[in-house]
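Issue 218. Parser rejects a valid record. Input:
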Amino acid sequence: MKVMIVGGGGREHAIAMSVAKSKKVEKIYCLPGNAGIEAVAQCVPIGPMEFEKIRDFAKEQKIDLAVIGMDDPLVGGLTDILEAEGIRTFGPRKNAAILEGSKAFSKDLMKKYQIPTAAYENFDNADDALCYLERASYPIVLKADGLALGKGVLICKSFEEAKAGVKEIMLDKKFGASGNTMVVEEFMTGREVSVLSFVDGKTVKTMTSAQDHKRAKDGDEGPNTGGMGTFSPSPFYTEEIAQYCEEHIFQPTVDAMRTEGREFKGIIFFGLMLTEDGPKVLEYNARFGDPEAQVVLPRMKTDIVDVMEACIDGTLDQVNLEFEDNAAVCVVLASDGYPLAYEKGIPIEGFEKFEGKDGYYCFHAGTKKNEQGQIVTNGGRVLGITAKGADLKEARKNAYAATEWISFANKYMRNDIGKAIDEA
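Output the parser choked on:
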């Protein structure tokens, strides 16, 4: 098979490495890819939103399976465009990707189908939002309705902070048109858990659980980022909680989308909060998480291409989804200053130390090759250093040891990824 992966971050590197393990696959292309993905795929300089170029490339190369890793092209309808040309595509169509593309839509869906989530109100007018926030209890959460690179969520501790947040999202349009509508949501407390799942329109099969660390600084301080590290599985996601989520969240979401005429095929990422009142949905994503994919996919035993094809064909109920009985931790190496201002183009050294090391992975996120052929930094999140272990504590120790193998001038990381493991 010829497989085309759309995207160029750490998530797509993890997907490409999983696809490369399949005996069915002969050739992998990644559009646009990055300096690390080059090791397993041919990188093609076509951007993820250049839909016509992607379509034409897929037709020319007679692609057997297209895998869309990123949210923007999914929400923009790339699946529909490729399917119209007869190209088998893994990822939801536009009318289903709205599950991630509009937080207001997903909140209304949960309300309509009684799927547990935080209390909320939607606003498309800043003055109305401010009137509501004047009499609200704090802390409270403001969310830009549309896609915002994982950064469109503000936790406000006072009305003054909320007022500044409304200005940022709805008036200053920090997140562009994504802030035309804003969700104001009850602040939930508890453990966060990420559960990624494969979906074929009817059947949902969950992967092993994970937990992300969104804040830039140790102790969950600093601004929200795209994710500074993850661990898998979550010791807080018990069999009992998993059973409840299956009955009250996972299957009801898939059924609700089908009932609404928005059949969902691909990945649903369930972002959950384990509250005192039981698990509730924080958010939905319509693709693999990043960096969740970097700890979940290395532990997956089942051939990912078989699973993706079953999702497309509606035969997921016939697949036995298996994961290794171990653990994995990913620590993101970022450029100092991320997610605000940071330098690019800084040479990176130490990649050779990962060669031949079983259970250790260096996933490239923001990298490229310079004119001299040297790998340099090209983004805020540069690399995801993942390591496995017999249990979470061993995986954490291994991952942090491996972060020392890599060096670049403005290297920054959190030092407490997976610290919650010690409390489990």
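Fixed in the parser; the record now loads. The chain has a mean pLDDT of 96.
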